[in-house]
């Protein structure tokens, strides 16, 4: 029997996460709950590095007509994601695939998606997490999934009018913008996420192909502050996640 700490209870589904290396955290909740202003409801969605499936499940709840595919390499996470998908109200619209990102992209004719999203590994410290699976889930290693890799290959997977959504550390944004330009993408929307005002710690970003631009479009910028001065969740954070989190 699973303990209460191994199950994350949402309003419309439960997330079992006792065996997977990476647990559901604030970053995944923010990306899953974010609704970019310039994004039309997608019909086909790809969640890269799904872990136990939280982003795929949140998007299945929000977009009732969307078909969602989830890719994950780590075997224990795949097993739990499969359980979570089957137990959810949206199992018939969720497809799970155990695969390496580059292997999947380099197929002869990769599928195309209206929205790709990922909460990718981004830690680059030389001291890695002790378990190999946790290191894979949390660190940017040679050849493993990373924000730069996703930007580099997104255009191979996007339908016309499609977009890539990421959450990454705030200090990586400029480097990612440079990578995006080299890969034929531009930053369409950016939310600076702060624990306290004017102290960004994360960036929610939406990237689109430059080739589809017909005129100059400035980046749509906003800020999300997560906490009140007393450390309690901010009103903006509660509004963002209220459709998913229990009160």
Provide the structure class: alpha/beta
CATH superfamily: Vaccinia Virus protein VP39
End-to-end Cα distance:
25 Å
SSE string, helix = H, strand = E? EEHEHEHEHEHHEHEEEH
The number of helical segments is 8
Q: Strands of the biggest beta sheet: in what spatial order?
A: 5-4-3-6-7-9-8-10
Q: How would you describe the shape?
A: globular
Write up this protein.
With 247 residues, the protein is of the alpha/beta class. The chain has a single domain, classed as Rossmann fold (3-Layer(aba) Sandwich), CATH 3.40.50. The chain has helices at 26-33, 54-62, 75-87, 101-105, 132-138, 147-153, 173-182, 235-241; strands spanning 7-9, 14-16, 44-48, 67-72, 94-98, 113-118, 158-169, 185-194, 200-209, 220-225. An 8-stranded mixed β-sheet has the order 5-4-3-6-7-9-8-10, sandwiched between helices. A two-stranded antiparallel ribbon has the order 1-2. Helix 1 runs parallel beside helix 2 (54-62) and helix 6 packs parallel to helix 7. The protein is globular and about 45 Å long. The two termini are 25 Å apart. 38% of the residues are buried.
Provide keyphrases for this structure.
two-stranded antiparallel sheet; alpha/beta; 247 residues; 8 helices; eight-stranded mixed sheet; globular
Protein topology:
Blueprint: E1 7-9, E2 14-16, H1 26-33, E3 44-48, H2 54-62, E4 67-72, H3 75-87, E5 94-98, H4 101-105, E6 113-118, H5 132-138, H6 147-153, E7 158-169, H7 173-182, E8 185-194, E9 200-209, E10 220-225, H8 235-241
Parallel strand pairs: 3-4, 3-6, 4-5, 6-7, 8-10
Antiparallel strand pairs: 1-2, 7-9, 8-9
Helix pairs in contact: 1-2, 6-7
């Amino acid at each position: 029997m699973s303990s209460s700490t191994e199950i994350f209870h949402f309003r419309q589904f439960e997330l079992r996460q006792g065996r997977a290396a990476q647990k559901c955290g604030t970053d995944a909740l923010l990306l899953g709950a974010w609704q970019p202003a310039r994004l039309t409801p997608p019909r086909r969605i790809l969640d890269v590095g799904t872990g136990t499936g939280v982003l795929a499940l949140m998007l299945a709840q929000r977009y009732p007509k969307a078909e969602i595919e989830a890719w994950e390499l780590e075997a224990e996470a795949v097993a739990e994601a499969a359980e979570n998908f089957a137990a959810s109200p949206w199992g018939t619209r969720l497809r799970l695939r155990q695969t390496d990102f580059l292997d999947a992209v380099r197929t002869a004719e990769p599928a195309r998606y209206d929205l790709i999203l990922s909460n990718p590994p981004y830690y680059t410290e030389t001291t890695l997490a002790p378990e190999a699976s946790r290191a894979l889930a949390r660190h940017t290693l040679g050849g493993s999934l990373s924000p730069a890799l996703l930007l580099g290959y997104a255009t191979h997977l996007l339908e016309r009018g499609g977009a890539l959504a990421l959450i990454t550390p705030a200090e990586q944004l400029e480097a990612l913008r440079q990578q995006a330009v080299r890969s034929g993408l531009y930053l369409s929307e950016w939310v600076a996420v702060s624990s306290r005002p004017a102290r960004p710690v994360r960036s929610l970003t939406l990237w689109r192909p430059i080739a589809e631009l017909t005129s100059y479009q400035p980046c749509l910028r906003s800020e999300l502050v997560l906490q009140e001065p007393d450390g309690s969740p901010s009103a903006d954070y509660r509004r963002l996640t209220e459709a998913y989190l229990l009160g």
